[in-house]
Model the fold of this input.
Amino acid sequence: MDQFNSKNYLIYANFLNKLAKDLTSFYYSKLNRTFKVSNKLEGKGYDPVTTSDKAFEKFIRSKIKNKFPDHQIVGEEFGHQKSKSDFTWVIDPIDGTRSFVIGNPTWSNLISLNYKGNPILGLANFPVLKKYYLNYSEKTAYVVDNGKRKKLSVNNKATFQNVKVSAAFHGSLSLDKQKKIPQILKLMQFPCSDALSYSHLAEGRVDVVIQCSNKIWDIHPIIPIIKAAGGYLSTWDNRDAVNAGNILVSPNKIIHNKFLRLLKPVSK
Done:
């Protein structure tokens, strides 16, 4: 399989860097006002979508189409725009819609660029927090916080004895299953806020993030950022995180393998 030409990273990273700023400006100029909420799972559960989700996705799609008209696009709200291109943009216009609905500032815009199905660049933009996370290569990623840029690195001093764990099951793990992982429950001592928790791990603020039921647009944009910061990702049953689903993220292999063992009773 042909490999992505690393010389082209800067083209796409610069595009995402500008897009992050444009998305924040778009939010404050157009979307920081009353919005409508509907439930995708009416009668079967709760999966909210807002008029702002749709507006963000239309905005992102228009920017991509203008710059890279031949590329494919997959978005949570408007599906798959197919082409013959090896490049696909994967969009979650608002990751953390529940947070958005109640005014919690931890929601984000997530975008990845995939080459032949493999996420190579990721953006996690947090408009209300005025910060965004973006990788520029396989080994370099930054957080830009109120205009100040800092290189990302996981906590290299983390050990199992002092690990900071952020976890959420999003209603996907029954109480009976939770009883099978008592040590995980005991270690869940830090709040989990959707993609912000993954981003905090890349920044070295937390050491392990455990989440359930991620879709590709929840995790693909995070994968290249975490890897560039030195972290490890997989599903709970140790498959490639590209598959989405139940996700484990850790700062090193030792901790990652330890948590895979702890999660094994609920990993099937």
About this structure: The mean pLDDT is 95. The domain at 6-151 is CATH 3.30.540.10 (Fructose-1,6-Bisphosphatase; Chain A, domain 1). The radius of gyration is 18 Å.
